Amino acid sequence: MKKTLLSIGVIGFTLSLLSCQWQQSVTLTITQYSLTNDSIKLNSILPNRDPISISVSYEITDENDEVSKVVLVNGQLVDGELSLDQKVSEPTEVVISVNIGSTGQSAWTTAVLRPDSVIEFVVIHKITKDANYYLVEIKGRDHRSKDELLKFSIEGSGIELKDTDPELLQVRLIPEQSPLDRSVNINAFYSVLVDEGKFSIEGDLDEPTLFTIEVTEALALLSYVHWIPAILEPGVNYRIVPSGNQGKYVVLADRDSLHTQLVSSWQLDPKFVALVDSRTEGQLDAWWDLEREAEEEHKNEQIRNYQVAEQCAHVSLADETKLRFGKPYRYSYQKTGDLIRKARSDALRKILRDTRDAEIARMIFDLNWLQSREDSAFGSTPGMVEEVAILEELALKMDEEFVDKFIKPRVAQSRRVAMLEERNSSLLPGHIFPNFSLTSLAGETISLSDVLSENELVLIDFWNAECYLCIDSFSALREIYDDYKDHGFEIVTISIDKTLAEWEHTSMELNLPWIDLGDTKDGAEKSGSSTTATDYGIHRLPNRFLIDEGGCIIDKHLTDYDLEQLLTSR
Questions:
Q1: Helix (H, G, I), strand (E, B), or coil: what is residue 199?
Q2: Count of domains for the chain
Q3: Residue 159 contacts by C-beta under 8 Å, 6 or more apart in sequence?
Q4: 518 is a domain residue
Q5: To 10 degrees, the CA torsion angle through 98, 99, 100, 101?
């Protein structure tokens, strides 16, 4: 399979935001139109409250690669209709754009206009307390195929989603990028509003492509979302159908295909369906707090069993701190999620071991990675051992160049991250923070023990020039530092920039008032160690530790607010 870019018709929209003051919490206006090769007609009883100008256009490229725009129509509807100035003689991808006169806002989508087609589209205007949102969306049927040999189709009926406005129910087809080399088969996605529970999408594909089918509510900032994996390919027709008893959906192909082999083979297994239903039921139990007793007992056990180092017996830790760094309670739905992940992973890895096709092997890896993202949403994530195992199995199917370029570095990175996380997780409140000795930009060598000998509390804050959250927090840290620097409090920031130049430039620009030390890859230039970040397991930023004069960790990962509250209480 070759990796190509295929323009299917990019669905785009602009969510224009304008401040407004409305008494209503949410006002929704959906204006329906139909586009033919002759005209645009208003199908709604009530038009949008603001005057709307609609244009339909497409681009052509001449023999000199010069691009020009052909406008079929541009203007406002009169008596509910706007005639096209020009027509298309063959299937043509067009841009449908709306401009709202009173606000200057705009939104757009694309469609394939045919001489005999009728395209239903809507303009959605949503007003909330704080903003205006506009969206243009195809309704019901989005048929873009121009080549019968490359055509695929997918449809569904009776599509519902809990707690969702049925008029805004949206189905989106999103092509997935490979996590290995970041390649993607196409550079577009499809999106359509469900029409009375039904939708139909047709398009063209050069080769089998991994998609996420997203069922959600359009323009909803917080909405229930259902993700469905699908491998779509030319010449195959697909349907979205219900699965199980908890409102879930799956995709079915009308013939043997990669989707039936790599997805339906495990997804339709009755035991797997039962596990998915059980997980959903478990989520409801957690929502209704039906596991409270077991959760409370777990918390009490974590508090009782929290271990403090002998040298840090003087440290008094709040129960909340012990719980933050203890083993979290796992709800029944999370445990069921582990079973779901294992069942799917086992099935896919068996197919992976049996196949001799490198591209199928790669598709299996991409699919497993895609599903692991959904697992994470349910609190179930694969460990390093599982991730490395499937990477090593994939390596047996790929050519040496691909393995060296994409798989070996990822295996090394997975193992490194696991090592760093293990080291960082061992540095808990109530334990000794290992000493370090690093240099400042002035060339002075400073150790943690030196700083602790002169202060009661020291904040260790790892950062680099690319960590905007770190840098943004320095403003609040300055205020805290000014208030407490004369009361036994010090801050030590440790740069883990890749180069001395990056650290030097950013640090001097920020003019940090506290002790700023460096730990970069060219750390030898500063007579310091370039392994401090590794020693302390730092691979995510921000990363903070609060240390007392005895070298004991009082807290970690604390916010500016937490820090100020702690300092105030002392």
A1: strand
A2: 3
A3: 169, 171, 194, 197, 198, 199, 215, 240, 249
A4: yes
A5: -140
